[in-house]
Amino acid sequence: MSVIEAWVFVFIAAAVGLYIMYSFSVEAALISAGSLLLYGFVYTPLKKVNSIAVLVGAIPGALPCLIGWVAGFGHGEVHANWIGGWILFGIQFLWQFPHFWAIAWVAHKDYSMAGFKLLRSNEGPTKFTALQAILYSIIMVPVGLLPYLNNMSGIVSLWIVLGCNLYMVYVSVMLFLKMDVKAARMVMFSSYFYLMLVFLSLYADKA
């Protein structure tokens, strides 16, 4: 695919996607446009500049949760009804840090060869990387209680989400203790199942 072909594809896909979002609500379309711009023109080029790209990229990475929630309400709904969307945004926003740092750990050599600076240290994976995975996993625990406390879901999903969050803390701690690719891969694969189990349980047990 040439550069021109890529630009044409991106423009068409963006236009169609934004039109679909607009058919649900103006707000959903505006958030989608902001997510598109932040991901494509800030996060992506920033990956070759500084590891702060991980933080920046986590925002558009979590916005689909808010976009879907806002689109579900339709045109003209007040922002007070968006609290559930912001809670789901918070869950996915925090999840991305242990998830992405585990990927960056496993694929560090490939990322370095491509010029991507996605870890905080130039030395590659360090104890500090693992410590951050633990920190964000711990923060995920109280945030995971919010769907239940906000009457979005029931007691069954509360325990499922709590169990998933505590397991993410566990595998992140094991990464800190072992400091190897095998432990990083465990965090990575656990994060895949985490998102699926958490969101499916919240959906199945919705209030």
Protein model, in words:
The structure is a single chain. The protein is mostly helical. It contains 9 helices and no strands. Helix 4 packs antiparallel against helix 9. It is flat, with a radius of gyration of 18 Å. The protein starts with a helix and ends with a helix.
Any chance you could write out the topology, listing elements then pairs?
Blueprint: H1 3-24, H2 26-46, H3 53-73, H4 83-106, H5 108-113, H6 127-143, H7 146-149, H8 155-178, H9 181-204
Helix pairs in contact: 1-2, 2-3, 3-4, 4-6, 4-9, 6-8, 8-9
Order of helices and strands: HHHHHHHHH
**Residue share in β-strands:** under 5%
Got a strand count? 0
Please summarize the sheet with the most strands.
none
Continuous helix count: 9
**What oligomerization state is this entry in?**
single chain
Query: Uncertain regions: pLDDT < 50 for 5+ in a row?
Result: none
**What is the CA–CA distance across the termini?**
47 Å
Radius of gyration: 18 Å
Specify the structural class. Answer: mainly alpha
Residues in helix, %: over 70%
Shape designation: flat
Mean pLDDT: 89
